[in-house]
Design a protein that fits this description.
The structure holds two protein chains of two kinds. Chain A is an all-alpha fold. Chain A is 72% helix and 0% strand. Chain A is globular and about 70 Å long. Chain B is of the alpha+beta class. Chain B has two domains: 32 residues; 131 residues, no CATH class. The longest helix of chain B is centred in the N-terminal third of the chain and has 30 residues. Chain B is globular and about 65 Å long. The termini of chain B are far apart. The chains are: A mainly alpha, B alpha+beta. Chains A and B meet through α4, α5 and α6 of A and α1 and β8 of B.
């Protein structure tokens, strides 16, 4: 309110608004008795419910051998039924902060019950299969959430379960394959998150989960890009099964189709996004562009396998990273997403600086090297700050 | 009762019914399946105990030349007359007791039975018995070839009884 007063005074002083308008705004704001923001109350109640759920799991885990199976299962199902009955009763109280807290507890007890059944019957499934089963059976209940926490919690566990289970379905897995499968998992996560984000525009049931899917798309997308850049720049060679990448290709095809069906995207946006997806798949493909053997930069001189500019893995990698970020930045700028645009262009600048350190290697650690490095960072920051608005204007004009 | 409330009731009952059915089916399989007993060995003494469960390798009793024909396939172990691994789609119709599984990249058959949940306070003692090759698993196999662990035997006694001695 203090800030509002200051701003209104400033605007009035510059004759942007009249004194009557100032009074009208202040009167409106002071009588703003809309629903008070109870986010802290929801957070505490949900946290409390989650901790109770975890406490129940811990109790069962610590004492399970002493408790007869029927009692254990009976307790779990009694808790589920009690939570369900409370939710049905609370549904007629739209303002109650308890609804989401008990819904969160219900979802956690469902997960605990899956664990309990696995423990009692020594079920040999994997943790991600349990998460996927949990996500499938609790999805209808999660759609009744009134606040963000439950959809976010559901989305987080669903993505983990879905990504790991998808790779698991493609081949006969060996637990020791996890490290080798990691790139296939990393590329699938953002694609799957983006598929469900776009599906949210078509399926009303998924609408509540869209923000969470978009959040995870951005986080996992960034992790995927950084990870593959490090793998390719570092010259890692891979032993892999082509089938591990099949879920990614299917998800990418589905995502491209969903992007093409978006009526609010211009042809330019569709082209930019689909090109970025295609480049990401190309980046992750172990054989097409990267050999794991060819290096150009300073640190590779000793290896005796220095390659030409065009052939080197450690130059193709940053080029692809910057190109993917640039395509996404253009899409964000063209669509008016300022913060995403700024983040993408900042990351492009950062990658250029990292490339400088990669290329200069030990030279950057000398006195002159450090001075040049510092100047480069300041120069990049200045260039980014001065040119980002121009670039965003240009990206908007592309479809004007 | 309004329609929204009915939808909520259905959404809440769905996971409860699925989980209850799952528990009931596991119990049925444990009670009704054909019981067989197989010896087990610790996979690696340094990583035998992981959290609240034991990890082990089951000795399926497969003789040389009767194992996986090729690696990385879905496979079925016939336990009827001769213990032999077949690709899943080539299992002889005459085989009435079999175990579904897979041949891994090393060409070893596994039915995915590798874990037994135990109370933490008995973990180190049970671990020692498994390392000393005194452990056996009692499996319950249904007509579809799916196996469920019924019990862990230590020196041919249920693990609970062996701890009492």
């Amino acid at each position: 309110m203090v800030n509002l007063h200051k701003k209104l005074d400033l605007w009035e002083e510059h004759e942007l608004i009249s004194a009557e308008q100032v009074d009208a705004i202040l009167a409106f704001e002071s009588q703003d008795k809309r629903e008070p923001s109870n986010w802290w109350l929801y957070s505490l109640l949900t946290l409390g419910a989650a901790i109770i759920g975890l406490g129940i799991i811990s109790l069962i885990a610590a004492n399970w051998a002493l408790i007869p199976n029927l009692v254990k299962l009976g307790s779990a199902f009694s808790l589920l039924i009690a939570a369900a009955a409370s939710l049905v009763w609370l549904q007629s109280h739209p303002a109650s902060p308890w609804f989401d807290a008990i819904l969160a507890a219900f979802l956690i007890i469902c997960l605990a019950t899956i664990g309990l059944i696995a423990q009692i019957y020594h079920v040999q499934g994997q943790w991600y299969q349990a998460l996927f089963l949990w996500a499938v059976i609790t999805f209808p209940a999660a759609t009744f959430a009134r606040h963000l926490f439950v959809p976010f919690f559901w989305t987080t566990l669903f993505l983990h379960g879905a990504v790991w289970s998808s790779i698991d379905l493609t081949t006969v897995r060996d637990p020791s394959d996890v490290y080798r499968e990691l790139p296939a998992l990393l590329v699938l996560a953002p694609l799957l998150a983006a598929v469900f984000y776009h599906l949210g525009y078509r399926l009303k049931l998924l609408a509540k989960f869209q923000r969470s899917f978009f959040f995870w798309f951005q986080i996992t997308g960034l992790i995927a890009l950084i990870a593959i850049d490090m793998i390719r720049s570092g010259g890692e060679s891979q032993q892999y099964e082509a089938l591990w990448y099949l879920p990614s290709w299917i998800a990418a095809a589905g995502l491209a189709a969903l992007i093409l069906m978006r009526d609010d995207y211009r042809p330019l946006n569709k082209t930019l996004l689909i090109s970025a997806i295609a480049l990401l798949l190309l980046y992750y493909h172990p054989d097409i562009l990267f050999s794991g053997m060819t290096r150009y930069t300073f640190s590779a001189i000793d290896s005796g396998t220095q390659a030409s500019l065009l052939m080197a893995d450690d130059l193709r990698a940053p080029f692809l990273t910057i190109l993917i970020l640039f395509l996404y930045a253009l899409h964000a700028g063209n669509n008016g997403h300022h913060r995403t645009f700024n983040l993408m262009t900042f990351l492009i600048g950062l990658r250029f600086v990292v490339l400088y350190f990669q290329a200069m290697g030990g030279l950057a650690a000398t006195g002159m090297g450090l001075i040049i490095s510092g100047l480069l960072i300041i120069g990049m920051a200045w260039f980014w700050y001065r040119s980002r608005d121009t670039l965003q204007r240009w990206s908007k004009e592309l479809t004007a | 009762m309004n329609q929204q409330r009915l939808k909520l009731i259905a959404a809440l009952l769905f996971p409860i019914v699925v989980l209850a059915t799952n528990a009931w089916m596991n119990q049925q399989q444990r009670d009704d399946g054909t019981a067989i007993t197989l010896p087990i060995q610790g996979v690696d003494p340094r990583d035998l105990l992981s959290g609240h469960y034991l990890i082990f390798d089951v000795d399926y009793g497969i003789k040389a030349g009767y194992g996986c024909p090729v690696p990385d396939i879905s496979a079925t172990l016939c336990l009827d007359k001769e213990t032999r691994v077949y690709p899943s789609d080539e299992l002889p119709t005459s085989c009435s007791l079999f175990l579904r599984g897979a041949c891994n990249s090393q060409g070893d058959f596994s039915a995915g039975l590798e874990r037994f949940y135990i109370p933490e306070k008995h973990a180190s003692l049970l671990e020692k018995h498994i390392q000393a090759n005194q452990g056996k698993l009692v499996l319950s196999i249904n007509s579809q070839g799916q196996a469920l662990i019924r019990d862990l035997l230590i020196n041919d006694q249920s693990w609970r009884e062996s701890l009492d001695d």
